[in-house]
Amino acid sequence: MEIEALSIGQYSFVQNAYSFGFAVMAAATLFFWLMKSEIAPAYRLAVTITGLVTAVAAYHYFQIMTSWGAAADITSGEVLSTGQPFNQAYRYVDWLLTVPLLLIELILVMRLSQQETIKKSTILGGAAALMIILGYPGEVSETGGLRFVFWVLSMIPFVFIVHQLVVGLKGSIDSQPESVKKLINISVYLVIGSWLFYPIVYLFPLVGLTGGAAITALEVGYTVADIVAKAVFGVFIFMIAVRKSKLEGETKPVSDQS
Amino acid sequence: MEIEALSIGQYSFVQNAYSFGFAVMAAATLFFWLMKSEIAPAYRLAVTITGLVTAVAAYHYFQIMTSWGAAADITSGEVLSTGQPFNQAYRYVDWLLTVPLLLIELILVMRLSQQETIKKSTILGGAAALMIILGYPGEVSETGGLRFVFWVLSMIPFVFIVHQLVVGLKGSIDSQPESVKKLINISVYLVIGSWLFYPIVYLFPLVGLTGGAAITALEVGYTVADIVAKAVFGVFIFMIAVRKSKLEGETKPVSDQS
């Protein structure tokens, strides 16, 4: 990435987007964990993992923000490279950990049988990890050809996950209480909708979008997609957990009944 | 270690692996400690120690990552030594503390008699500490001969521990409830499987594997082995604790029933 292609305004805008990303992820984490004790024990694992996803994302946004700051010197009034490369790989390191986990939190909040939970978590989590691992070599490759090959390879587990979410989970979603069915469907479409952004921007360099505006759109877009897929999605998981706690008569945690 | 033997890609890949290691260990720690209150009191000691192991590992991964960053300057487009040596000893400091503890968490989650617990923890913990202490002089020695001598010495407690886990614990594992027997066996083989990596890479320098690719394989491999032996192993310990809590009718923690 050519950081000198950015104007001061673009450079600062991206930095502010990272800072916003960090603040949202950290705040979401604290929210989920602080509220965990208010929901029924059966849903605390899902809500704990929801906070784990945003916690890991908060850490990586902090690292990305630091790396962005170290990559450029703007004291002269323009964006000059310091020679320190901007580490884009933090995103992949983050996704490798968070994407399988966020699919698992969706499975967990549905409270399927133990066998179903383990089976679906393994399949979806494994496919998600494979998708990220296959995307990485293309992201760091210097040639457009390799980038495209790994885009195609990475799209295979991507399409498989979308299919699993829409078709494979249909039966499980149908068996959910009426009052949360809509929330679960929204969560599924939030994941799919925000994920569509990633394979599109991945192709940006291939179609010649490499200037300052493209870099800005890409970095800000990634940040918005991450916030939707992790923090906003997490709020839906939390709401589902709250409603199901109420339905199952466990609104008040056992500890409050003493 | 000759850090200048690495390409920028290799150097960055190792740095990302360390960051991933830190994120996994820190996330695992938070997970175990946040979920501790959800399991039966009898298993909270095991789960607390499980989180302690990953917490200590998170600290050391942070130190290793910082040391790796300070050892090289990559602003010129290639990896140049800053003169600051990369501190490999952090791994040994970490293992000296975490390896005895992770064997103890396995003993604790089996909930043996008090006498058995103390006896097995002392034997396995002591052998593990001895194994690490004997490995260190070979790791820092300049000559291949000394490296090999300490490899052999360190392998004695290593083989003893593997024997204890496979043969010595057999009776205790057989007395466990049917639904967790498989999980305990997987945990034992996770430890043994991931540990096999360490004595193999220890011999790398002896067979002339000292280039950039060997250093990368070694550092990334250590990180993966650590993640399996501490975080993944810890998740199994946690799952065993959850299932045994349920079996013993203590799904709702006792402290909440007061």
Automatic annotation (TrEMBL), chains A, B:
Annotated CDD domains: 7tm_Proteorhodopsin (cd15242)
Main location: membrane
Coiled-coil region list: none
Membrane-spanning residues: 17-35, 42-62, 89-109, 121-136, 148-167, 188-208, 220-242
Localization (cell): Membrane
Membrane as UniProt keyword: yes
SUPFAM superfamilies: Family A G protein-coupled receptor-like (SSF81321)
Pfam families from the UniProt entry: Bac_rhodopsin
Keyword Nucleotide-binding among record annotations: no
UniProt entry keywords in alphabetical sequence: Chromophore, Membrane, Photoreceptor protein, Receptor, Retinal protein, Sensory transduction, Transmembrane, Transmembrane helix
Topology of this chain in the membrane: Multi-pass membrane protein
Recorded superkingdom: Bacteria
Family from the record: Belongs to the archaeal/bacterial/fungal opsin family.
PANTHER family (alphabetical): BACTERIORHODOPSIN _OPSIN, NOPA (EUROFUNG), PTHR28286
Entry protein name: Bacteriorhodopsin-like
Species per Swiss-Prot/TrEMBL record: Halomonas tibetensis
Organism phylogeny: Bacteria, Pseudomonadati, Pseudomonadota, Gammaproteobacteria, Oceanospirillales
